[in-house]
């Protein structure tokens, strides 16, 4: 099984960015933990601050891997293009958020990903990604 994790803008700053909301761990550290916990899975990880690069990556991975865990970060709330990209591929996408977006500002309650995602995992800290992996393993 191959699972690709795609992270959007500002998630490269995890570990130092608003630690009260997003925690103290870098994604690179967390990614290593995931790889050792699920050694039977082939993982790939991509992060970009650029909307078009995220769409390119969704298109590139979306016909070959078994699942995509997508945290589109701020683009979740604005990007018709990322929503359309998810509709255009074969691979199921799970929408991931570290924080509980529904307990935050109103503009974070709208998602262009949710209607086209297989499901959403929101608000469990970095553990949201692990729960997404578990879900793909069981489906
Ligand atoms: C986020 C929530 C978004 O609203 C925010 O813009 C992010 C991170 C999360 O994982 O909690 O950058 O996607």
Helix and strand topology:
Blueprint: E1 2-7, H1 19-22, H2 27-37, E2 42-47, H3 51-61, E3 67-71, H4 80-88, E4 93-97, E5 119-122, H5 127-138
Parallel strand pairs: 1-2, 1-3, 3-4, 4-5
Helix pairs in contact: 3-4
Bound molecules: 1,3,4-trihydroxy-5-OXO-cyclohexanecarboxylic acid (DQA).
Tell me the helix content: 25-40%
Largest sheet: 5 strands, parallel
Count of DSSP strands: 5
What is the CATH superfamily label?
Answer: Dehydroquinase, class II
CA(first)-CA(last) distance? 11 Å
| CATH architecture name | 3-Layer(aba) Sandwich
Order of strands across the main sheet? 2-1-3-4-5
Distinct compounds present: 1,3,4-trihydroxy-5-OXO-cyclohexanecarboxylic acid
Q: What is the general shape?
A: globular
Overall tally of structural domains: 1
Order of helices and strands: EHHEHEHEEH
Structure write-up:
The chain is of the alpha/beta class. The chain has one domain: Rossmann fold, CATH 3.40.50.9100. Helix content is 34%, strand content 19%. It has five helices and five strands. Strands 2-1-3-4-5 form a five-stranded parallel β-sheet, with helices on both faces. Strand 3 (67-71), helix 4 and strand 4 form a beta-alpha-beta unit. Helix 3 runs parallel beside helix 4 (80-88). The longest helix is centred in the C-terminal third of the chain and has 12 residues, at 127-138. The model has no long low-confidence stretch (mean pLDDT 98). Bound molecules: 1,3,4-trihydroxy-5-OXO-cyclohexanecarboxylic acid. 1,3,4-trihydroxy-5-OXO-cyclohexanecarboxylic acid is lined by residues 10, 71, 73-74, 76, 97-99, 101, 108.
């Amino acid at each position: 099984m191959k699972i690709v994790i795609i992270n959007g803008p500002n998630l490269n700053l995890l570990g130092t960015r608003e630690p009260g909301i997003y925690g103290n761990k870098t994604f690179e550290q967390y990614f290593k933990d995931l790889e050792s916990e699920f050694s039977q899975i082939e993982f790939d990880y991509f992060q970009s601050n650029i909307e078009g690069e995220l769409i390119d990556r969704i298109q590139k991975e979306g016909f070959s891997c078994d699942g995509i865990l997508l945290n589109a970060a701020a683009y979740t709330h604005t990007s018709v293009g990322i929503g359309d990209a998810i509709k255009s591929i074969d691979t199921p996408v799970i929408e991931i958020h570290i924080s509980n977006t529904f307990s935050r500002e109103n503009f974070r309650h709208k998602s262009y990903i949710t209607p086209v995602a297989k499901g959403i995992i929101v608000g469990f800290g970095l553990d949201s990604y692990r729960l997404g992996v578990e879900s793909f393993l069981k489906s």
